[in-house]
Amino acid sequence: MSTPMIPTTPRRLGLLTCAAALSALLATLAGCGGEETAAQTFRPVPFGKHDRCQVCGMVISHYEGPKAEVVIKGAEGEPVKFCSGRDAFSFARQPENERRLLAFFIHDMGATDWAEPSDEALIPAKDAWYVYGSKVEGVMGTEPIAFGTEAAAKAFQEKEGGKIVRYADVTLELLNE
């Protein structure tokens, strides 16, 4: 017994074509939107000499120590910049900003100078190892000091104290200790 053929009308063919196109679009979109993808899409941009910190309003270039920048949904064309990792985390960890976070970059202090951090040393914040509570303070006080490797973080910690934490550990609660 053979399977009856469903007549292919122009309308049915159009619906099948639309369904196939929609299915392909949904499959493409399913792979987008996560922070992993977003972090690969965005790159850090250099700090300008007149850039101001989003949290405190200070001119970023007037201060030493690590700086940071984030990209949020709705403002993808212009990263939000900060004079310190502390201010950046304070901003990024706010619930209304955390859900819009697309990318977060911070200076790797194992790869750059404290007095004048190089924009070439900006790394994804999620990949960093942090030393928090060391004897070395940032422009806004106790600073989550980022390092690109665990070995660099441990070497700094041995010299300056503090505790080593990862990205997920740098919470508003930690910053307010």
Secondary structure layout plus pairing:
Layout: H1 10-30, H2 35-41, E1 68-72, E2 80-82, H3 85-92, H4 95-98, E3 101-107, E4 122-124, E5 129-132, E6 145-147, H5 150-160, E7 163-166, H6 172-175
Antiparallel strand pairs: 1-2, 1-3, 3-4, 5-6, 5-7
Provide a compact summary of the structure.
This protein is α+β, with helices and mostly antiparallel strands and 177 residues long. 31% of the residues lie in helices and 16% in strands.
Mean pLDDT over the residues: 84
Strand content: 15-25%
Number of separate helices: 6
Query: Strand order within the widest sheet?
Result: 2-1-3-4
**Element string (H = helix, E = strand):** HHEEHHEEEEHEH
Fraction in helix: 25-40%
Dominant shape? globular
- Count of β-strands: 7
Give the biggest sheet.
4 strands, antiparallel
* End-to-end Cα distance: 77 Å
Based on CA atoms alone, the radius of gyration comes out at 23 Å
- Unreliable residue runs: 12-40
Supply the helix-strand structural class: alpha+beta
Features:
7 strands; alpha+beta; 31% helix; 177 residues; globular; four-stranded antiparallel β-sheet
Task: Describe the fold and architecture.
By secondary structure, this protein is α+β, with helices and mostly antiparallel strands. The relative contact order is 0.13. The longest helix has 21 residues, at 10-30. The strands form two sheets. It has a four-stranded antiparallel sheet. A three-stranded antiparallel sheet has the order 6-5-7, with helices on one face. The radius of gyration is 23 Å and the shape is globular. It is 31% helix and 16% strand. The chain has six helices and seven strands. β1 (68-72) and β2 (80-82) form a beta hairpin.
